[in-house]
Amino acid sequence: MKPWEKNIRRVTPYTPGEQPKDKNIIKLNTNENPYEPSPKVAEKYREIQDLRLYPDPKVEELIHALAVYHGLEDNQVFVGVGSDDVIAMSFLTFFNGELPVCFPDISYSFYDVWADLYKIPYTVKPLDEDFRIRVKDYEEKNGGVIFPNPNAPTGICENLEFVRQMLAENQDVVVIVDEAYIDFGGESALSLLDEYENLLVIRTFSKSRSLAGLRIGYAMGNSALIHALNAVKHSYNSYTMSRPAILLGVASVEDDAYFKETNRKIIETREWFSKELDRLGFTYPKSGANFVFATHKYLPAKEIFEKAKAAGIYVRYFDKPRIDNYLRITIGTKEQMEKLVKFLETLCTSVDGSVM
Amino acid sequence: MKPWEKNIRRVTPYTPGEQPKDKNIIKLNTNENPYEPSPKVAEKYREIQDLRLYPDPKVEELIHALAVYHGLEDNQVFVGVGSDDVIAMSFLTFFNGELPVCFPDISYSFYDVWADLYKIPYTVKPLDEDFRIRVKDYEEKNGGVIFPNPNAPTGICENLEFVRQMLAENQDVVVIVDEAYIDFGGESALSLLDEYENLLVIRTFSKSRSLAGLRIGYAMGNSALIHALNAVKHSYNSYTMSRPAILLGVASVEDDAYFKETNRKIIETREWFSKELDRLGFTYPKSGANFVFATHKYLPAKEIFEKAKAAGIYVRYFDKPRIDNYLRITIGTKEQMEKLVKFLETLCTSVDGSVM
Q: Do residue A119 and residue A200 come from a single domain?
């Protein structure tokens, strides 16, 4: 047994009733309803067929599309209800040891919540003064490591060499790289999968694939990790992925040109918007995500947040230690960002010309 | 604090970014993508709008539709990804005591799995020789009670007086009645909600509403129970319900005439099919569900299962103690059941006329 396998939760997966694909079969084995849903539902779903039947519990179609897309085998991909579901399932599956799991203090806000929920010990590692993760903080013996790359809400993307170092220092536990925002210009850890069998890379359809409303996330890693995730998932709820999610998820993966084009536009808008922020007196870590994490030299973040909201522009403010003078601003369309810039211009000018 | 409140899991719910309904707001606060998904996805989803945006984490529209439908307040309804998700969440939320949770030995096969997963102690209570639940088995001090009504895979539906007795004997713990199959003619425990604040009634859209492919389940109970469920849910994953599920779920609830009509047809077919089973030498507990749990006087269930499968008719066989000579046969359309009857007729005749 590999050291990182010791902390994998042991479960007996449930065997769901068979879901044959042959339409001629008279299927009376899983208590589905033989009648279509209300025609009013039918009017809405149109092409999303067979809603009365359970979805494929193995989600094979979507897993295969993702595996092909990333040049992996089907048994290296796990799919869940958004990356939240995939990460929570990974905590439950891989972090069953006595030693604390490590993650940054300023990071995705659910890591500590899931650890608490599953009674997993953990230690938060403060980012340095430039909001960077320090590999040396993760060198002591631990029960696992998870960090987002790019990190959120800072937007900072570390390079492949950084991820490799993190893995080199943590070969006895599962290391999870949460790549929710990687498609906005970052270097993915995927190329390290062959080298590190304890690496799990997690992605989402909610950001770069514009499908937050569908709830799809996925994990990639060696087949032993994926097998363990599936065992835990199927011991809990085999049918989490809806038919619309599977069908539309595949359609998204298959249209790569559109995916690349919209990501390119967001990166372009981000770079333009960053320069505008410079001009307006903001500072921010260089972003590798679809948001910028910015602070102003005079204006308190909370005040900007409230005034922007009153003007119909929503950005995110976190009332938390170290980051309570920052705003996390999602990159919208160029037109939306121009409106925001105009708003900020007025706000900053009124300050420079009067109070300050 | 009420006794049953002692076992409720304490968590701090997460506050998601705001999801304003006003379309004029420039929404840059939750890192969604400003561009529509691939037009190939758009072609498929048609009327399911705004897939690029997160769904409403409070699922207000669907909860409200269900509350109105059942004559409850919105704060008495909790929605999840199929009743599996709702029941698992209920285990996690309500069964945190030292005493074992009780449920029948022959019952929904996930109860013990979830108890194991969450390290919840439990005791299974054998059904009597007629496959009935005995209230007296649930009278000793315990950490909670859950049972399906109608029970699965037996199909037996107990009356309201039975449920009332179960509640009367278990007032210090949460009692969950899993009513996945109640719409096929059973008496719901809903009318007892005012009387017993420790009662939680769970339903699904997968059977009577023909929407197994969408993944929707829900729980009804007093607002304290629902509040606790929401707290646990939001500490784990706020965005489990997809936009298609919410939108199409509401459409289903609003078309009550269709719902009642399809349920009526299934009940009618079940009653006809039961008589055919009598004629063919099967016995079965009287069913209150959309399936019949049947055993034949000569033919082994496993043999029927395999031969039916070879003939393109899938029914369910469980290789488990006490029920390994039974088949769980879902009620399909009248035409499907006629084909099954014809198949069984041939099978039984060949036995009666030769081997037996």
A: yes
End of a domain among A254, A282, A311?
A254
Q: Do A25 and B82 touch (CB under 8 A)?
A: no
Q: What is the mean pLDDT of residues B333-347?
A: 91
pLDDT (tens digit, 9 = 90+) per residue, B85-108? 999 999 988 998 889 999 999 999
Decide if B51 and A210 are in contact by the 8 Å CB cutoff: yes
How does pLDDT run across B111-144, given as a tens digit for each residue?
A: 998 898 888 999 999 999 999 999 999 999 999 9
- Could you tell me if A288 and A272 lie in one domain? yes
Residue from A8, A22, A26 whose CB has the most chain B CBs within 10 Å, to mutate: A26
Percent of chain B that is helix, strand, coil (3-state, to 5):
40, 15, 45
Domain ranges, residue A203: 56-254
- Chain A partners of B341 at a C-beta cutoff of 8 Å? none
pLDDT for B233: 84
Could you write out the three-class secondary structure of B75-141? HHEEEECHHHHHHHHHHHHHCCCCCCEEEECCCCCCHHHHHHHCCCCEEEECCCCCCCCCHHHHCCC
**pLDDT value of position A350:** 75
- As for the ipTM of the complex, it is 0.79
Q: A285 and A227 in one domain?
A: no
In this predicted structure, what is the pLDDT of residue A20? 57
Same-domain pairing of B219 and B156: yes
CATH code at position A270: 3.90.1150.10
User: Does A344 map to a domain?
Assistant: yes
Any idea what the CATH number is for the domain that residue A151 is in? 3.40.640.10
Same-domain check for residues B248 and B266: no
| A204 and A92 co-located in one domain | yes
Nearest-CB residue to A248 (from B44, B265, B291):
B44
